[in-house]
Amino acid sequence: MAFTTWDDSTGGDIYRVHVSGPGATSGVPQRLSRSKAFYEKLAFTPDGTKLLFARATRTERFESDELGFAEPSSTHADLMWMPVACPAAKTGSSAGACGPATTITRLEYLSRLDPPYYGVPHFGPDSSRILLFDANANGLYSMRLDGTDRELIARATQRPWNSNGEEPVDDAILSPKGDRLALLGGQNMWLATLTPGATPTISLLRPNASPVPLKRLTKIGAQFAGWSADGRILEYSLGSALYLYDVAAADSMDRAPANPEQPAGYEPTRVDITITVPKDRPSGAVVLRGARVISMKGTEVIENADVVVRDNRIAAVGARGQVQTPAGARVIDVSGKTIVPGYVDTHAHMYAPGWGLHRTELWQYYVNLAYGVTSTRDPQTGSYDVIDYSDRVETGDVLGPRIFTTAKGFFENEGIQTLDDARNALRRNSDFFKTETIKAYAVGDRRRRQLVAQAAYELKLSPTNEGDADFMLDLTHMLDGYAGEEHTLPTYPLYKDVVQLLVQSGITNSPVLTLAYGGPTVQEYFTTRYDIRGEKKIQRFWPQSYTELRTGSSQWHPDDQYAFPKFAAEAAKVAAAGGRIAVGSHGNQEGIGYHFEMWGLAMGGMPAHEILRSATMVGARAIGHADDLGSIEPGKLADLQVLDANPLENIRNTNTVRYVMKNGRLYDAATLDEVWPRQRKLPTTQWWMADERQ
User: Fold this and answer.
1) Contact in structure between 600 and 615 (CB atoms under 8 Å)
2) How many other CB atoms sit within 10 Å of the CB of residue 276?
3) Per-residue pLDDT tens for 521-531?
4) Which of 23, 94, 212, 577 is the 20 to 30 Å CA partner of 60?
């Protein structure tokens, strides 16, 4: 078995391990690669003597996508091979490396938001020729081991995620016998039967017009396809479920006459893979004593309070000396400071950092936590990798805010026409990825949007959507039962009818003033009027390239040209009428951008306490976790922050975070060193400036 490793600071390697048969070494891995880099797409030749892989330099693959909304990992790679046998290495030794690696061909990057960018190398009936789906050249190609004699086997296209055009499918894998072509596209699995000597062009948009027989195998979704060595079984997965599709058995059932006593169609074998890891849960009791507590329990403010935390939950809150202190509890004096709940960012585009490269040093997570954001909801990540990061945060493997997400949004390319279509598409999230929420991102006309909303409620998913700068569209979202409205309504002023529709519908609006329509935005306002580069936490946690991008491109505008205060005034109007306004930062200026959103709301006249409510309780309700988050009350998770100054006196005092507590662990907000219950420094990360590394 061969596998790759990765570390953000150093790069990765390829290893092999004998798992059975002669030479088995009880699982001791041996390094094959000679130098650290980014390695992926591993495949053995049929005789097992060579290993194929894609290689990019660590710098090229890792550092090029740190620009926030730049396209993910817009880098090229080389398809290479190396010998597997390493006669010089001692049995059971992890030292040494095989090689040298031989370049086969260049893998060109295709500019699109949805990875992957090139397929997994594999082999068909001719073991001397490599097969590889090249998205940039839009086809499955065959070539020799030196990359020569390149031949097109088939072309295949799908509808892109965000338009009505066409783009290459995600992967195409030829069966070992060469007679079947497995296609991953439109987030589903397809199977084509090839005609000898033909080079078909297959469109998943028009399957009925396919030049070769084409069958859609899945209704809900599929990922990571491959064939068994004999070509009998097509393997694919979805979430943690592995599917084994017996091609001959399925063909036989398709040919059999209809029998009402038999199942309607062939169902592949499903194998559920369960991995159980305990959640991170600290132990011990601590009392934060002497601070003012803005609990967000109504308008409650407790002066000179005690906040008792046991393990990872709030045990008691009350006036100093009026609540029971557990025996042996540590008491931390925070006199004169202000405690507020951790912020909930309902529109936090931290995406899935690395886009297929699973990071170990997550600066986006660090900086958001350092600025008091303890929970996030990312509406539309473009990748399912975020599910892995969410789990890693829960287990303590990664430090960061709680990660809630819609994962990939739902677009018109889902082809939803019926309620069953909507149910099947949304089951990816409800049954396999457990996201709790989905984002409908221009799924089609109003009828189809209603189908998505109905299916979401049936499957216990909370549906939010893209406002899309379309006022009439936004009104239908409120009328048709959507739970969330992302971005501002693109007009002002709002009259009583619209305000009451927002209130009575119960929809939660995240205005995201960072991208407010109609004029220069919050981002431009504060970039030109606030010393972002002077922020110590920015210097510590933002990569230099991200700092340059996010602070060096805005233009100064006179105050009267900014539209966002007008939108903020409408949000204040809705909140005052009892509507739900949440705070979402969009990830354009990670961490500090959340505070800019709150300050932008204040510029529209929203009172400070209402802003804090929007940033905490409203956000917690919007993501479906108000029972655990959003306020400082007994029984809730211990997510809070300690501020040096009172934000009720000046909303800009939100940016005086001294400590942040998430899940009962207390961190120094300036460094993210843990101060309770462990005393542990955050390991040095490559993103820190040179003087911080010393």
Assistant:
1) no
2) 4
3) 999 999 999 99
4) 94
268, two tokens:
């592949």
* 561 CB burial (10 A radius; 0-12, 13-18, 19+): exposed
Is there a contact between 479 and 551 (Cβ–Cβ < 8 Å)? no
Alpha-carbon gap, residue 234 to 175, rounded angstroms: 8
Give the contacts of 585 (CB within 8 A, at least 6 positions apart).
345, 347, 348, 373, 512, 514, 593, 594, 596, 597
8 A C-beta contact, residue 44 and residue 112 = no
**What secondary structure letter does DSSP report for 393?**
H
Q: 254 is written with which tokens?
A: 């398709």
Token digits of residue 568: 């903020």
Chain mean position to CA 287: 35
Strand order in the sheet with 484-486: 484-486, 508-510, 580-581
Q: Express each pLDDT in 318-367 by its tens digit.
A: 999 999 999 999 999 999 999 999 999 999 998 767 777 888 889 999 99
Does residue 61 have a pLDDT over 80? no
Question: Could you read off the pLDDT of 578-619 as tens digits, one per residue?
Answer: 999 999 999 999 999 999 999 999 999 999 999 999 999 999
Partners of 245 in beta bridges: 234
d(CA 119, CA 185): 12
The candidate with the shortest Cα–Cα distance to 135, out of 164, 80, 172, is 172
Looking at 459-543, list the stretches that DSSP marks H as alpha helix, in order from N- to C-terminal side: 471-479, 496-505, 522-529, 536-541
| 77, β-bridge pairs | 107
- Give the CA distances from residue 36 to residues 9, 39, 104, in Å, rounded to whole numbers and listed in that order: 11, 9, 19
Structure tokens at 271: 């194998």
- Separation CA 390–CA 606 (nearest Å): 33
**Alpha carbon of 97 to those of 16, 33, 35, 104: distances in Å?**
10, 6, 9, 20
Residue 459 is encoded by which pair of tokens? 């499957």
- The H or E element that residue 301 is part of is strand 301-310
Strand (E) or helix (H) holding 312: none
Please name every residue paired with 439 in a beta bridge, in sequence order, or none if there are none.
464
Which sign does the torsion angle of CA 145, 147, 149, 155 carry? Answer: positive
Beta strands in 145-261 (DSSP E): 151-158, 167-168, 171-174, 180-185, 188-193, 201-203, 214-216, 223-227, 233-238, 241-246
- Our CA angle for 489, 495, 498, nearest 5°, is 55
Q: Kindly compute the dihedral angle of the four CA atoms of residues 319, 322, 327, 330, in this order, to the nearest 10 degrees.
A: 10
Q: For 18, phi and psi rounded to 5 degrees? A: -80, 125
Token digits of residue 99: 């090689």
Instruction: Name the residue with tokens 């097109």.
Output: 152
Number of Cα atoms under 13 Å in the Cβ half of residue 551: 19
Q: What is the DSSP letter of 249?
A: H
From the number of C-beta atoms within 10 Å of its C-beta (0-12, 13-18, 19+), residue 331 rates as: middle
Q: How far apart are the C-alpha atoms of 371 and 366, rounded to whole Å? A: 9
The CA distance from 675 to 664, in Å, is 11
Residues 46, 229: Cα–Cα separation, whole Å: 9
Helix (H) or strand (E) holding 69: none
Q: How far apart are alpha carbons 507 and 264 in whole angstroms?
A: 40
The count of other CB atoms within 10 Å of the CB of residue 197 is 5
Banded pLDDT at 24 (limits 50, 70, 90): low
